[in-house]
Write a structure and sequence with these properties.
There is one protein chain. This protein is of the alpha+beta class and 323 residues long. It has one domain (1-112, 156-309): Thymidylate Synthase, Chain A (2-Layer Sandwich). 32% of the residues lie in helices and 27% in strands. A six-stranded mixed sheet has the order 1-2-9-8-7-6. Strands 3-5-4 form a three-stranded antiparallel sheet. A two-stranded antiparallel sheet has the order 10-11. Strand 7 and strand 8 (206-217) form a beta hairpin. It is globular. The two termini are 27 Å apart. Bound molecules: 5-hydroxymethylene-6-hydrofolic acid. The site of 5-hydroxymethylene-6-hydrofolic acid has 15 residues, from helix 9. One of its GO terms (cellular component) is cytosol. Homodimer. Its main location: cytoplasm. InterPro entries: Thymidate_synth/dCMP_Mease, Thymidate_synth/dCMP_Mease_dom, Thymidate_synth/dCMP_Mease_sf, Thymidylate_synthase.
Length: 323
């Protein structure tokens, strides 16, 4: 994981001090990229002890469209508690549904993106087409003297990605988005990692992922998001019969919080170890072996189905999260 340390070094050398919503300053750098060949190993940070179980618990929560910090805790991940219960702006938000609620965060958009259509009632073919695609008629209304139909469907973007990998792997539109502008006002924290694009290579039976992160806390967030992206790509590959290959990680605002500088300086003094391997439990069906497409495992998978083999790491280090 030399690339992680290189990123930290580049931010320290070329970044500049910035103020932000949390009140804790950062050294920030606009635009960064890392690219990992997952055949060479899993992108686990080795210069501190990675909270692997916690990161995987968070990913499993996203897969289940969780919107409560309690659900994440039950999956072994405590990192959402502060955002749910300590951010004054969110506490005062009328959409917050009580203790631990996070609003329509990540997984809700991944699995249940609210899709609406307004179609003229006289356009029978359009209404029929939308209904056939799973939209439900919510109501009929009149606008400027014209009868209109409002239709709704919760779009499972991630499931659609898997379906397309199976049916049309050369498609260059296999992506899901976490940034829903209509819902930014009813969420504890607008999505940081927000665009995931899968790129299957049918001839080589390999699949790659490009991930775009608008804003990344390089001390705490990046190690987690690397685990989650690589584990998600591996899971999607397992369920569709592709070996995980390139994981490319783009960052918009790459930053280091002032109160994490010491943790990162210590890591720069350490020599990274060889990358571990990710193992997904045998019970999660491998499409390449079974020939049975079982996308319901996106919801059925448990944190314990993921483990690292050969993970050698330096002494634990940690630092506070900025809220
Ligand atoms: N807010 C901030 N300021 N940074 C983030 O990275 C971040 N996230 C999520 C939401 N808000 C954020 C939460 N992700 C840790 C790890 C990931 C987080 C938040 C916190 C953390 O404290 N990690 C510690 C301990 C982990 C543990 O033991 O469970 C660590 O040492 O790794 C970006 O997605």
């Amino acid at each position: 994981m030399k690339q992680y340390l290189d990123l930290v070094r580049t931010i320290l050398e070329t970044g500049s001090w910035q103020e932000n919503r949390t009140g804790i300053r950062t050294i920030s750098m606009p635009g960064a990229m890392m690219r990992f060949d997952l055949q060479e190993g899993f992108p686990a940070v080795t210069t501190k002890k990675l909270a692997f179980k916690s990161a995987i618990g968070e990913m499993v929560g996203f897969l289940r469209a969780s919107r409560s910090a309690a659900d994440f805790r039950a999956l072994g991940c405590k990192v959402w508690d502060a955002n749910a219960n300590e951010n004054a702006q969110w506490l005062a938000n009328p959409y917050r549904e009580g203790t631990d609620d996070l609003g329509d965060v990540y997984g809700v958009q991944w699995r249940k993106w609210p899709g609406y259509k307004v179609v003229e009632a006289s356009q029978q073919a359009r209404v029929a087409d939308a209904t056939q695609r799973g939209y439900r008629i919510v109501t009929q209304f009149e606008e400027d003297g014209v009868q209109k139909v409002l239709l709704y469907k919760a779009i499972d973007q991630l499931r659609q990605c898997l379906d397309t990998i199976m049916s049309n792997p050369s498609d260059r539109r296999i992506l899901f988005h976490g940034w829903n502008p209509a819902l930014l006002d009813q969420i504890a924290l607008p999505a940081c990692h927000l665009l995931y694009q899968f790129l299957p290579n049918a001839a080589r039976r390999e699949i790659s992922l490009c991930l775009y992160i608008r804003s990344n806390d390089v001390g705490l967030g990046t190690p987690f998001n690397l685990v989650e992206g690589a584990a998600l790509l591996s899971l999607v590959g397992r369920l569709t019969g592709y070996a995980p290959r390139w994981f490319t990680y783009f960052i918009g605002d790459a930053h280091i919080y002032e109160n994490q500088l010491e943790m990162l300086q210590r890591q720069l003094e350490r020599e990274p170890y060889e990358s571990p391997r990710l193992v997904i439990a045998d019970r999660v069906p491998d499409y390449a072996e079974t020939g049975v497409y079982a996308p319901e495992w996106l919801e059925q998978v448990e944190p314990g189905d993921f483990s690292l083999v050969g993970y050698r790491h330096h002494e634990p280090l940690t630092a506070p999260m900025a809220v």
